[in-house]
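Q: I have two molecules that I believe assemble together. Could you output structure tokens for the complex as a whole instead of separate predictions?
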Amino acid sequence: MALFKKAFSKLAKGLSRTKSRFVGGLRSMLAGRQIDADLLDDLEATLIQADLGVAAATRICQDLQTAHKEKHIAKGEDVIDFLKTELKKYWPESDRSINFAESGLTVILVAGINGAGKTTSIAKLAWQFHQEGKKVILAACDTFRAAAVEQLSIWADRIGCEIIKSSGGDPAAVVFDACDAAVARKADVLLIDTAGRLHTQDNLMRELTKIRDVVARKIPDAPHEVLLVLDATTGQNAINQAKAFLDAIDVTGIFLAKLDGTAKGGIVVAIRNDVNLPVKFVGLGETYEDVEPFDPETFVEALFA
Amino acid sequence: MFESLTNKFNDVFRKMSGRGRISEDNIRESMREVRTALLEADVHYQVVKQFCDDVTQKALGTEVIQSLRPGELMVKIVHDELAALMGPVDTRIYYVSPPPTIIMMAGLQGSGKTTTCAKLANYLIKKGKNPLMVACDLQRPAAVDQLTIVGEQIGAEVFAVPGEKNPVKVARKAVTHAASTGRDVVIIDTAGRLHIDEDMMKQAEDIANAVNPHQIYLVCDSMTGQDAVNSAKEFNERLELDGVILTKFDSDARGGAALSVKAVTGKPIKFMGVGEKLDALEEFHAERMAGRILGMGDMVSLVEKAQEAFDEEEQAEMQAKMAKGKFTLVDFLKQMKQMQKMGPLKSILKLMPGMGANSEMLDMMKGDEFKGMEAIIHSMTPAERDDPSIIEASRRRRIARGSGTEPQDVSGLIKSFTQAAGMMKQMAGMGARERMGFAKQMASGGMGGMGGKVKQRSKRLTKKQRDKKRKGRKRR
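A: Yes, here they are, computed for all two components at once.
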């Protein structure tokens, strides 16, 4: 319970600005109004400004209109509850937890575009697993960007976990070694950091597929989880990103980073709509403690409370 | 995604044709399409609203109503208005005397500040300057190392104070150091910060107050969504920006953030980052940006992409063949292989004018079309590859069987090859300048869909004009 409280307060804090703009606006906007075309327009505007995208916003508004016609809701005040229920439906409980291996090593591959926050997010995950008493090994496969390996090493030191790196330039080779090392050292979790790459760069996406293939060959059923790190400030392009990474490495979930700003991260609704990817974690700050499992209840509550 | 704007416009107006004049309602209806396009491109909601109102007013007063091609004219008006809003851009950096000119970078985490510092330094070195980069990102682990390494790569000195925790002190020392070592430009890299992080924003202000930068640039990710206005506004209020550098522009982001940021801050976009390499920094082009926001394709990017992927020597050889009309299926295959280096056909086609939006067709493509074509060509005899016109029904069946395709796929390939060969012959006969013109013509023609009309090069004179010309000659 205490843990939940902490999670709630942190997320609520991160979202507080969002909340005051979004809900303050939404509540006063809806109070004492009839559900008519004007209200739907205003609502659509609000949802679009939260980066839900035109399609998802239109869909929600249509659902609202239908609900109104069928007399499920009557006045403006009911809209918030309706939205809560609607949005929560997007994330059923079944797909929000990490898929751990039944026994032995769990491999988690992490990818994303440049500057999305992969390395920091990995530090957060590593810390969380470390706290749970698991033995964590990091694989520094971002061999491209200057000082990326150093960055991950510093995190590993701070958290107190092992890191596999190599002086060579081939990320697939690093992953090869890391898989061997993780098995030999009986690690519980292997977290693989990869170089940021734009989803439009075909050769780099193929390199990512190769990394995945190496992991799959070395360890049965691996990678158990493939996380796409997504910057919460990203707009509609995130859908293209999700599609491309899904094609290349069968992404299993999203790590929504940088949700502590004013950006609303509404794009995850559109992503759920378009490519059916769940959100698993949210990042809420710059230290490794600033991570929470994604909880739609809290997420939506914090948005509309 | 949406279909081509022009097509949608035309649909709206077609409904009205034959029924007299096009009404105000039609224009408003077509502006709904513009609105969707802009929102899909991540232009901020309020900015879109204002923009659409303005353009509607403008369109109502113009000849759109009388025009024979109202759809195309509407797109043109929207496009020009967008370009006008974002440009013209003065990308010159004004140097101060006595040096050094101080440039400060600021932005959110992960927007690309450190990389952009190096790109800018590299750009300045090419212009004959002698820049010093300053590592004031003391927040992120290994950020100083990163700047040091990229500094080495481009051959620019990096100023860092090991162990120092206060970026203000580093910045101050750096300026003194630059003045005493004859550096004429100082580029200050700062830590990424959230615009609502009071402590960090104060720190940025302190750095600015300590060294009085001559230019402060906001580094902004071109994929940013609706939140771009919030952060840009706050940065502008705290730091009085001089311009914006748009990064990760080599993605398929439509970059509406550019318009949003310009609209709320009034500050111009000066440069854009277009690749991972440290020379991938370009001056901002408002025209290109406008086309891209509207999903009209980006012919220039396509040409650039092609130049990157193609081997020059092979290209010259190929061109000679084309010019002689000796372009065979074997060459076609080679050409395709080179095109493959540019990425899947799907992503290339997206850059083509009129295609970016044509999602239905793109959705039908699986992304491995090249493979099928390759299989077909490999299933032909050398004689067939040299001259595909000898392929009749029986040969076609054999080839289809050999390549695991259908006979109509074979004839489809031959047909497109024949077309391509014809077009290439035409292109090969042109000079470089003409070819660019051809590409441009395709781009503007493409606004009306793929097979848009091509402007005639020479115009037939009327009888009156001919007479006039003759007279003029006589008088001389």
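A: One point stands out. The mean pLDDT of chain B is 79.
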